[in-house]
């Protein structure tokens, strides 16, 4: 079994996962998310491996490493390609513009 495709798939998966982690946090901040929301989003990147790690390990022990890595890298590639080819597929637009100053106290200060 050649090792080259596994190494390429693993490197691509790592780059895509790290890049999406950065892009999601920056996109959330751009949309006006609070530090708490960004922190929760970043913690979700660790939640999935926590829940499926043991099951995935058993699968790899049963079928070998090649097929699961190639399948997961293909799914990751499709997700990253979708985001790259269709960048306008973001959250639905809200009825009011995003503002860093949306509290009523801030609105009364700016009106005075």
Tell me the count of domains.
Answer: 1
Unreliable residue runs: none
Structural class: mainly alpha
Terminal residue distance:
73 Å
Give a count of the beta strands, DSSP E runs of length 2 or more.
0
> What fraction strand?
under 5%
Helical content class: over 70%
Radius of gyration: 20 Å
Average pLDDT over all residues: 77
Notes on the protein architecture:
The chain has one domain. 75% of the residues lie in helices and 0% in strands. With 112 residues, the chain is mainly α.
Record the SSE blueprint.
Layout: H1 4-30, H2 35-63, H3 66-85, H4 104-111
Helix pairs in contact: 1-2, 1-3
Nutshell version of this structure?
The protein is mainly α. The protein is built from 4 helices and no strands.
Q: Which labels suit this protein?
A:
112 residues; mainly alpha; 4 helices
